[in-house]
């Protein structure tokens, strides 16, 4: 088998592949890209057994047939350092040769018969969502999912289709994000599924490169399949029980504060210079019509910044991880937001004044008294 492709095409394909391959491989062959020819076209495959990707790459001068497996990270590194804008690959006995300029790189190959059979058949229920809408919704929740792969039921995003609405939910042990948009004129079939954080990031990346108006997927009860341009991506649904997120959303509050979001963000970023070590906190002291943001560190000093606010309810002193407050506030668009407090020990809910589209829940840190 022999083929030629542009450097830019190889860089793009290899970079997508390395995002899919597993970090720790039970089988060495899973660290590789399966390269194969089919009816004169060249395809790259990769999988971590939970998600799989197939890329039809643009090539010229395709000769012969067959398949082989190359180490994905090696190919990715080679692609970024080619001597020419074009590269020709040829296969010999136990190695693939990348001909670039006057030079060549010989890469060991693995037996493609050891590579798992991947199913890219596009079957199941059709689901169509506006691309810009779902991208915005992903951005609003993906930051909040836990990155700890051992906590499987929180290491991803819950998708819920209900009536006219799509809802995405994510959480870690200390916070939760919920976003909801009306995407249908009529009622849709109720369904829900949970996709891993790794799969979500890959879908997000593919959608950013797409120029289509809609995001189309197939859902067969076990997998989500999407095809964007010449890339087919399959994500196996995670068999986990996402927590009852509705039980976490507070039903009532003791204190409601309306505050200028950009100004509060600036203050938190400044105060975080003091409270930047692990375990450091910022305090929000709500008293009458004023909120004071403060922090204290034995090594970096102390500071406080007061704000005028609109307040309903009781005075309160609450502490938080400053990074959680900053990340949450950054995902709102309006100039004014509501900070809704249950009490000093229970969840803070951040939302726009009209409660439209997005809300963020953060657990406070207990203050040592």
What does this structure look like?
The mean pLDDT is 93. The strands form four sheets. A nine-stranded antiparallel β-sheet has the order 14-11-12-13-26-25-24-18-22. The chain has an eight-stranded antiparallel β-sheet with strand order 6-2-3-4-17-16-15-10. α1 packs antiparallel against α2 (72-80). With 369 residues, the protein is α+β, with helices and mostly antiparallel strands. The protein starts with a strand and ends in a 7-residue tail after the last strand. The chain is elongated, with a radius of gyration of 25 Å. The protein has six helices and 26 strands. 18% of the residues lie in helices and 44% in strands. 34% of the residues are buried.
Strand content: 35-45%
Radius of gyration: 25 Å
Cα distance spanning the termini: 72 Å
What structural class results from the helix and strand content? alpha+beta
Taking the sheet with the most strands, its summary is: 9 strands, antiparallel
**Biggest sheet: strands side by side, in what order?**
14-11-12-13-26-25-24-18-22
**Overall pLDDT level:** 93
Described by the principal axes of the CA atoms, the overall outline is elongated
In helices, the fraction of residues equals 10-25%
Note poorly predicted spans.
none
Number of helices: 6
Count of distinct strands: 26
